[in-house]
Amino acid sequence: MLGQERKAIEIYNELIAEQPEFPGHYANRGIAFDRLGQHRKALDDYETALNMDPEVAGGPNWLTRFLRNQAEKPPG
Prior knowledge:
76 residues; Serine Threonine Protein Phosphatase 5, Tetratricopeptide repeat; single chain; mainly alpha
């Protein structure tokens, strides 16, 4: 499964290079980063997507889920 996320990140990196104005690419790459445990990168991509388009599909849902998951993790 982790291989799929890594491949997805590679694909979204290419798409972002070609279409940097499309917020969905950042949002989807953020999801892949989140699944890999790269939470800072995920949050950066989520914020970029929402700053570009606050109505980006599912944006508030995945950002809320991300922040909730971070808050529930034990310190450490």
